[in-house]
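Example for tutorial group B:
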């Protein structure tokens, strides 16, 4: 490939993409193993969610009636459309006088009742007899020449009170079961207006039919009525909380991992997106199973008019948004119980706000803002479904043809033409937003360990251009010697140019409850390549504080620390740097439920070791650390010493150039300790090894060899001594 800047950029992008893929797969596999190994916890999680579904099913089966609520305005058409097809219908009238005969003749010729058969009847009883024997009959009983009563067979018209009862459950106006518009479609209004027009014409000698026939029928919007029965509200609340158990257990797991292991994984090269994606993918599987059950319950008990897939995707997108909302809360709040409680409250609060859409049409801007909260979007979505359920096709808004054309041609069509698409779009946008915000706050508020990014870090070009080491300004730039105090021995000749780590007046102050502890009081020191440097100091001298600064776990309060001229606090974001550095923290950090081999494999993937080389590298480390016999033992079943060896094994994965080891031999038996010492001595050529210890013997054994200059540093004072 050509060696142009564009080609280099492409290479970096594809390398990063494959790194993210590798890490995501490794962490997803780890999550699956954890689910399998921690069966009782996984069981609790699933049972809790099934209990919620059971409650939901119970509350759904209580819903017997659809709630009453606003019915939309509906245009029924014009009288001469015609609203009623009169051909073949017999219009009987009685008594037959000259006037009534003329009226009825006019009705037959100049009204929309074309095709109607006019028949004179002797009296009302005869009319009734005929109406019983024949189906298509309507009766007109004249009281005098101009006032009359209409008689319709049962089923062709409706009594006003009866119609009122059905006003809320009738969505298909043309259907026979729908009684409200029978006045229109059953012919009542057509017959009445035809006779009225004929009577007026007779009386005034002036035809009013032209005006009469343009009469239009409308179904008026109904008044607002109380909406929900309590059990319906209960159903919706249960649906909002149906993913609650997952959210709680997920926040416990994520926060536990973030507190302990994530900072180490990040220092080894973990991409934040891989961490969150690995949890997201696992829980998406949970969500899709739960969404199927939710859909099944809802379709069997509550809604009949929606299709399975429509409802399924609705629940699925809401579930995914809830999972990502949990990520966001886990980035903001560090205690799992607080995070779950706040999540619960916010779901209830915004879910309740969503009920508003059932009663009122909210201003569009306010609705879009509230839609940023998925529980609101979810409840509003359920409200949409209630309306769809009640009104079916009649619910779809009437669109002007031009508006329809515009919608088809524009992106809006995705949203407006189908109410479900709008919901899918909103919930998936919420999902993506929560996911990105979780990553953002994770960087800006990393918690106790980790160096926080500035709030506007994503606006800095340097953040996006940090691809290649050395391309952007994390290099400290200076190759000057640190300001060593008067009590520091000058370095013997031969060390110039081999400075790998430079500490310049490093201070670290911890502030807690108005009390500040100065762990590092201005330490200046160079650490050289090809040497083992031991930081020797009593308990509380600040050894771990220094290693934390170098490992990127914390930021110095003052001064600078550089590793190969890269600022220690910022270099951890740089591609390729993590592969060159191995860290063994003071406390053993590994996945307790995974075996030694699985732990090494996961960390090897995170470290960026090629897929095909991972097994070979893991075997090498197992042999080097003498862990082969326990490779298939779970980490929580290891002895203290074996756990320490595992931590060291994780640090030496990929044969890094810089080793930062915090009391690596603590808890090891004398034999293993000597094994580690000789291992480090064998590897020191061309590498930088920094070890902390409380034991003089260890410092002497490792750093006090006669070969080369001694590299034994005592901490605890204001300056290190070399
Ligand atoms: N997170 C913290 N908050 C407040 N004080 C802290 C914190 N971490 C360390 N300290 C304080 O900083 C000082 C240095 O602690 P550090 O852990 O670096 O000592 P150390 O030399 O590593 O000791 P040890 O050998 O026992 O591990 C101690 O007085 C400790 O109490």
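The residue assignment follows.
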């Amino acid at each position: 490939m050509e060696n142009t800047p564009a080609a280099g950029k492409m290479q970096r992008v594809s390398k990063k993409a494959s790194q993210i893929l590798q890490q995501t797969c490794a962490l997803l596999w780890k999550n699956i193993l954890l689910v399998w190994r921690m069966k009782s916890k996984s069981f609790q999680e699933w049972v809790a969610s099934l209990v919620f579904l059971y409650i939901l099913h119970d509350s759904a089966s209580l819903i017997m009636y659809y709630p009453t609520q606003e019915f939309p305005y509906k245009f029924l058409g014009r009288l001469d459309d015609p609203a009623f097809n009169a051909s073949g219908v017999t219009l009987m009238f009685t008594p037959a006088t000259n006037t009534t005969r003329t009226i009825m003749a006019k009705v037959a010729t100049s009204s929309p009742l074309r095709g109607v058969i006019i028949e004179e009847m002797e009296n009302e009883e005869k009319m009734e007899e005929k109406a019983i024997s024949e189906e298509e009959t309507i009766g007109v009983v004249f009281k005098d020449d101009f006032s009359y009563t209409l008689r319709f067979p049962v089923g062709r018209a409706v009594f006003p009170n009866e119609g009122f009862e059905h006003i809320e459950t009738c969505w298909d106006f043309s259907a026979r079961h729908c009684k409200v518009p029978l006045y229109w479609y059953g012919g009542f209004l057509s017959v009445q207006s035809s006779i009225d027009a004929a009577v007026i014409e007779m009386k005034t000698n002036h035809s009013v039919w032209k005006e009469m026939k343009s009469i239009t029928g409308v179904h008026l919007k109904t008044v607002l009525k109380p909406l929900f029965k309590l059990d319906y509200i209960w159903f919706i609340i249960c649906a909002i909380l149906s993913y609650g158990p997952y959210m709680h257990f997920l926040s416990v797991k994520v926060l536990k991992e973030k507190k302990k292991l994530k900072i180490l994984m990040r220092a080894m090269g973990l991409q934040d997106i891989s961490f969150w994606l690995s949890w997201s993918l696992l829980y998406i599987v949970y969500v899709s199973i739960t969404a199927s059950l939710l859909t099944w319950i809802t379709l069997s008990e509550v809604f009949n008019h929606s299709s399975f897939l429509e409802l399924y995707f609705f629940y699925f997108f809401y579930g995914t948004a809830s999972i990502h909302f949990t990520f966001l809360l886990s980035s903001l709040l560090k205690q799992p119980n607080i995070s779950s409680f706040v999540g619960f409250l916010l779901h209830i609060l915004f879910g309740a706000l969503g009920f508003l859409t059932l009663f009122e049409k909210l201003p569009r801007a306010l609705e879009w803002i509230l839609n940023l909260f998925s529980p609101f979007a979810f409840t509003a979505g359920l409200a949409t479904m209630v309306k769809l359920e009640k009104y079916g096709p009649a619910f779809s808004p009437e669109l002007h043809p031009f508006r329809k054309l515009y919608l088809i041609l524009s992106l809006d069509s995705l949203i407006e033409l189908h109410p479900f698409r709008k919901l899918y779009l909103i919930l998936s946008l919420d999902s993506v937003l929560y996911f990105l915000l979780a990553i953002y706050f994770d960087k800006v508020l990393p918690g106790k360990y980790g160096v926080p990014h500035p709030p506007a870090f994503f606006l800095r070009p340097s953040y996006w251009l940090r691809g290649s080491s050395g391309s952007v300004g994390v290099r400290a730039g200076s190759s000057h010697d640190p300001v060593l105090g008067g009590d520091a021995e000058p370095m013997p000749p031969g060390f110039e140019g081999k400075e790998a780590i430079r500490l310049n007046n490093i201070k670290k102050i911890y502030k807690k409850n108005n009390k500040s502890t100065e762990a590092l009081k201005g330490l200046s020191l160079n650490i050289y390549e090809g040497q083992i440097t031991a930081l020797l100091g009593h308990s509380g001298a600040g050894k771990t504080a220094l290693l934390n600064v170098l490992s990127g776990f914390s930021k110095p309060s003052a001064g600078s620390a550089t590793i190969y001229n890269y600022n220690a606090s910022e270099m951890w974001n740089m591609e390729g740097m993590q592969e060159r550095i191995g860290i063994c923290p003071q406390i053993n950090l590994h996945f307790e439920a995974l075996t030694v081999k699985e732990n090494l494999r996961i960390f090897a993937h995170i470290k960026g070791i090629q897929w095909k080389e991972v097994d070979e590298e893991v075997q090498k480390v197992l042999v080097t650390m003498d862990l082969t016999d326990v490779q298939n033992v779970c980490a929580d079943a290891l002895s203290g010493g074996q756990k320490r060896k595992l931590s060291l094994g994780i640090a030496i994965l990929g044969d890094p150039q810089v080793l930062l080891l915090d009391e690596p031999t603590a808890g090891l038996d004398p034999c293993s300790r000597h094994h580690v010492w000789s291992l480090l001595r064998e590897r020191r050529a061309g590498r930088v090894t920094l070890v902390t210890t409380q034991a003089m013997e260890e410092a002497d054994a490792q750093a006090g060899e006669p070969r080369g200059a001694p590299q034994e540093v005592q901490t605890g004072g204001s300056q290190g001594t070399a």
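The chain has a mean pLDDT of 80. Compare this with the pattern of hydrophobic and polar residues in the output above.
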